[in-house]
Amino acid sequence: MPLLPEPDQNRITRWYFGGIAATAAHTFVYPLDVLKVGLQTEQIMEKITAFRYTRYILETQGLMAFYAGFGAVVRQQFTHSIVRFGVYYKLRELLQMREIPLILDLFLSAGSGACGA
């Protein structure tokens, strides 16, 4: 009995899961990006650590300050990721090759990334 089932040739590719996963990952990274931008643009003469700046934001603006503008970022991230994954899998489907050489796969990835950008 094989451990993995035989690949089904009629299986529908669920490329939109890639867009959902990219958006979910961005949910956890976004507060770090807010913190980084805040540290870069803050006009404080003394050096401040990331932990101290995090505490400052929490005390002055609250937890939701780390997710300010998040709705627009989610829409942008989701639509770009969906396009990237959708174009990539559609191009792979058009090639009708079981095994794609690495260089061709790189070109497919770069092309779909450019479409999603």
Distance between the termini: 44 Å
The rough form would be described as elongated
Judged by helices, strands and strand pairing, the structural class is: mainly alpha
The run of helices and strands is HHHH
- Biggest beta sheet summary: none
> How many β-strands, per DSSP?
0
State the helical fraction: 55-70%
InterPro entries: MCP_dom_sf, MCP_transmembrane, Mito_Metabolite_Transporter
Keywords: Membrane, Repeat, Transmembrane, Transmembrane helix, Transport
Family: Belongs to the mitochondrial carrier (TC 2.A.29) family.
Protein name: Mitochondrial carrier protein
In short:
67% of the residues lie in helices and 0% in strands. The chain is mainly alpha-helical and 117 residues long.
Please explain how this structure is put together.
It is a single chain. By secondary structure, the protein is an all-alpha fold. α1 packs across α3. The protein has helices at 16-41, 50-60, 70-95, 102-116. The longest helix is centred in the N-terminal third of the chain and has 26 residues, at 16-41. The chain contains four helices and no strands. Solcar repeats lie at residues 9-94. It is found in: Membrane. One of its GO terms (cellular component) is membrane. Keywords: Membrane, Repeat, Transmembrane, Transmembrane helix, Transport.
Sequence-ordered SSE layout with sheet pairings:
Blueprint: H1 16-41, H2 50-60, H3 70-95, H4 102-116
Helix pairs in contact: 1-3, 3-4
